[in-house]
Amino acid sequence: MDIIIAVILGIIQGVTEFLPISSSGHLEIAKTILGDNSLPKESLLMTLVLHGATALSTIVVFRKDIQDIFQGLFQFKKNEAFYFSLKIIISMIPAVFIGLFFEDFITELFHKNILLVGVMLWITALLLFLANRAEVTEKKITFKSAIGIGIMQAIAILPGISRSGATIAIGVILGIDKSKAARFSFIMVIPLIFGSMAKSILEIDNHVSEVNILSLSLGFIASFITGIIACKWMIEWVKNSKLWYFSVYCLVGGSIAIIFELL
Fold first, then answer.
1. N or C: which end of the chain has fewer CB within 10 A?
2. Interatomic CA distance for residues 77 and 237, integer angstroms
3. How many CB atoms lie within 10 A of CB 196?
């Protein structure tokens, strides 16, 4: 893979992972536009590396929160860290279930179906619009809302639905404080990303001699740095109730996809 393409993909992944506009879709579109002719194994490995970089950037941004969680857990008491971790685990169950048993089915069902992608972008736009208009509250995440956010994360496997956008939006719609919803959304995906990476790496054979280590490294660095910036920016953006900008973006993008398919 060309070094310049790797850096551009890294920047795109770093930015779109935390913005509610579907990062995976943008990454694959960018590969096509940039003329990436990588072999499937190399392309998959690059995608895994870029996702790993944004997961690491999430850990850096929320390092204090994660440290507090682990410290609380090692006290072996039913404290706030224990209950927060339990909510994270509960929220992961729907996505893990779908990923293990229905991922191939969903991928095959929606493969190259631009019309459905457009409709899912419309749904994302609607969720973001409703979240933007939701009443500002100081509610905390409950076990019930954690399940609701987890179900939305599983639904976000569908192409065109932004994982971060959908989970933050449903949290806000359920009455959760916006900054708490964003924090929960970003932290809850860390175990899933690393789990998905481990699963995918195990499915790749050892014949990856064509991989350009320099491209992987530069792509990782670009994704990691832009990921940190985008993550912090998105938290502030949610606090300031500007999700409607992304709602318009998804609405326009979905409309273009639908018109393209119908024509």
1. C
2. 35
3. 19
